[in-house]
Amino acid sequence: MSPTSSPEANREFAELGLAPELLTALDSLGYEEPTPIQREAIPHLLEGRDLLGLAATGTGKTAAFTLPILQMLRPGGSVPQALILVPTRELAVQVARAVHRYGKALGVNVLPIYGGQSFSQQLKVLKRGVDVVVATPGRALDHIRRGTLALGSLQALVLDEADEMLDMGFADDLEAILAEVPDERQTLLFSATLAPRIGGIARRHLKDPVEVRIAVDADGDV
Ligand code: AMP
Question: 58: CA distance to ligand 1 center in Å?
Fold first, then answer.
């Protein structure tokens, strides 16, 4: 990754349909060209399609789902419009950082919420108003049950590393959260494997999804 990128790079990202504010962010991060999953997923996501993505970490999947969601938000609202569920607090912090970096110029507010962190601190920020919440399922459900995380205006739901979330025992929490989100929403599910339980969630909760599979070689390179 070089600190500057060529107009060529901007053109390739622009051809995917991304807004100028996002192109500027990608330019300043030195992204030279879209990764395969970004190339395949972004145009469909900008059309509002649901997506089942079979892709591991390191493929650029975070930008693939974050960029189109950011483009469709109306920043500055009082309740979240997008909820990204991840298996661990580390990933919550990492994805929230990415959302912040890509969405800064659009004025997007993002909050990571996870167990072990002060509840009242999370509450204070939620009350101020956030556009995107990145959460572990357990803590997200705590907030939903306490009435402190309103999902009525949610337009996009992402299940990131869904196989990991299931392996960590979050299946019931995920179903409980899915029961609380509006029917009219865009749903994205990412998993490194298509285990039967992942297929089950996809069948029940995704509407006519686009399927994107990204092969990773033995070195973990795309
Ligand atoms: P992810 O697979 O989402 O965890 O992303 C892996 C790493 O790739 C992160 O450090 C991203 O900042 C970086 N990245 C994502 N997309 C691109 C791109 N198009 N060009 C260069 N780096 C990228």
Answer: 6
For residue 88, report the distance from its CA to the centre of ligand 1, in Å: 19
Amino acid at 35: T
- Dist CA 151 CA 105 (whole Å): 25
Of residues 147, 146, 212, 205, the one with CA closest to residue 171: 205
Residue nearest to atom 8 of ligand 1 (CA): 60
pLDDT beneath 70: ranges in the chain: 1-9, 216-222
Helix (H, G, I), strand (E, B) or coil at 190: strand
- 86/105 Cα distance (integer angstroms): 25
Both tokens of 160, joined, read: 């990131």
Task: Report H helices in the chain.
Answer: 7-15, 20-29, 36-46, 61-72, 89-103, 119-128, 137-146, 162-167, 171-178, 196-205
Q: Please list every protein residue whose CB sits less than 6 Å from any atom of ligand 1.
A: 1, 31-32, 34-35, 38, 57-63
The 3-state secondary structure of 13-51 reads HHHCCCCHHHHHHHHHHCCCCCCHHHHHHHHHHHCCCCE
Q: Which residue has the tokens 């991060």?
A: 29
pTM for the model stands at 0.94
Ligand 1 atom closest to Cα of residue 34: 19
How confident is the model at residue 101, as a pLDDT?
97
Neighbours of 201 (CB within 10 A): 22
Point out the ligand 1 atom lying closest to the alpha carbon of residue 98. 12
Instruction: For ligand 1, atom 5, name the residue with the nearest CA.
Output: 60
Q: Ligand 1: which residue has its CA nearest to atom 16?
A: 60
